[in-house]
Amino acid sequence: MEISVVSTRPFTDQKPGTSGLRKQVSSFRRPHYLENFVQSIFDSQPMLRGSELVLGGDGRFFNREAVQIILRMACANEIRKVTVGRGGILSTPAASHLIRTRGAAGGIVLSASHNPGGPGGDFGIKFNVANGGPAPESVTGAIHAASLEVDHYRIARSPHIDIDHVGRRQAGEMEVEVVDPVHDYADLMESLFDFPAMRDLLHSGSFTMRFDAMHAVTGPYAEEILEQRLGAPAGTVMRKEPLADFGGCHPDPNLTHARELGQLMYGRGAPDFGAASDGDGDRNMILGAGFFVSPSDSLAVLAANAHLIPAYRGGLKGVARSMPTSQAIDAVADALGIPCYETPTGWKFFGNLLDDGRITLCGEESFGTSSDHVREKDGLWAVLFWLNLIAVRNQPVATIVREHWQRYGRHYYTRHDYEEIESGRADALMSRLRATFPELPGRRFGSLRVRTADDFSYRDPVDDSVSTGQGLRILFEDGSRIIFRLSGTGTMGATLRVYVERHETRTDQLDEDNQAALAALIEIAGSVADIRNLTGKDAPDVIT
Ligand code: VG1
Ligand code: CO
User: Residue 490: what pLDDT?
Assistant: First the structure.
C-alpha cells in the first residue's frame, strides 16, 4: 500500500488533560490537527509497532472520519492489527475490556465523554495502555512532548476501510478486525453479577426501572443487557439510539441534563430504580423513587455490600477514591479493615493500584465507579451492581442508602461548578487562595476551626511517581473539607470546581436538604476564595 509522508508543524495546545485531549470539533477538523496528535502517539510509543491496537469511540460527530484517518495512519506506522468496534463504536469500559482480553499493546478511544457533541460541540481522543487503562502521566507527558516536535506524519493512501461489517480484512500489511462492540462486554457483565436473581426481580411484577442512555454510546449495551439478556420490558432503556449530536443534549448524567428521567423518578408512580450514563459510557447516575444517590455515597454503599455480589463475594482487597470524593468510602474501609487510598482526580491514577492488586473497587465524585474487572470507570457496571443489590436485599434504593447512613453517618456533599471563567481570572483566584494558606491553620469560622490547608500532591505507592498541584484543600478539625480545583476537561475558558463536605453522625440529622446542611461551609468557601468578585458570578452554573 502506498504511504504518504506529510510535512506538518507542531500545534502548541496538544497537552492531554484529565482524560485525553479534548477540543472543539472545529479545532480537530483543522488540517493536520488530529494527524499530528496520532503521529505523536505512535512516535512516543514505539512498542506499538508490530502490535495490536484497539480503536473505537462514542459515536459522536467526527467519530467515523477520525476512525478512517487513524486506521490509515496505523497502517503507515506498521501497526500489525487494529481491532475496531463495528461502526467505530466502543464504550470506554468496553474498549478497556477489549484491550485486556486481546492482549493489545494499547487502544485509542475517541470521546469527549460528557461534553456536548455535534459540529459545534467537542471531540476528544485518548490513549490507553496495555493494562486497558488511561495512559499515566509519564505517557501523556511523552505524547505531549512528541506533539511539540512532530514535523511529519505517515498515512496510507488506502481507500475507505469497511468498519460496518463484523469480520477480518486487510489494509496493506495490516489486519483490521471489526468486532461486535457489545458482545464481549455483555458476557463480562454476566460473569460478574447474578443475572438469574436480577431477571427474577425484573419479572416479579413489583419492580420497574428506567435507564437513560442519553442518545449516547450505552444505548446498544443497555438494550442487550437489560432488555435482551435480563428481559426488562421494551422501553426500559430511554433515548437508546446513539446520535452524533446526542439529540442536541449534553450527555452528562445528572439531574440537570437527564431531566426527563429526573421528572419520572420524582413524579407520581415513579419507577423503583432509575439510572443514566454519559457520552462514552463510563459515568453513572443512580436514582431511587424520589431519591438521588450521590456518587460518593454510591461508592461507599457498593463497597459495604460487595460481599453480596458474586464477583466480590471473597471480599475487597482495598478501595480508592479521588481526593475530592467524599470520605464516605473511608468509613466503610475502616469498618472492613481494608486500606483506602486517596488519589488525584482522573481515572489514570487508579491503574497502578488495580494492577498491583491493592484495591478492588474505586470511584470518583463525578459519577464514576468501577472495579478491577476493567481499568476504566464503568457506567453500566455500576447500574448492574445496584440492580443486583436491590434484587438480593429486596429493599428500595432509599432504604439501602438510609440504612447505610444510620450505620456510618452521612457525608453531606456537594460540588459547585463555575464554568467558562476567563482563564487568567481563574488562575488568579487559585493563586490568591493558595497565598492565604499559611495563615489558615487554627483560624476559626463560626464553630469550625481549620486544621490544615494545602495543595494536594500524591506519591504513587507502586511506582513512586509524584503528581503535584492536584487541588487546594482546606481541612477542618471536625473532618469537614472544602476543596478547590480547576477542571482539566473543559474546552472553553476555565471551570472552577468547589467541593464541600461535612460528616453528620447524629441519627436524627441524616435526612436534611443537602445544600442547607452544607450552607455554612459553602459560605466559607465563597468568602475565603472571594468567588463572587473574582469570577464575576453570583451563583454556580451547575450544582451536583
Ligand atoms: C472530570 C471529573 C473527573 C473525571 C474526568 C473524566 O475532570 O472531575 O473526576 O475523571 O472528568 O471523566 P475535571 O478535570 O474536568 O474535573 V469522563 O466521564 O470525561 O471520561
Ligand atoms: Co465519560
Answer: 77
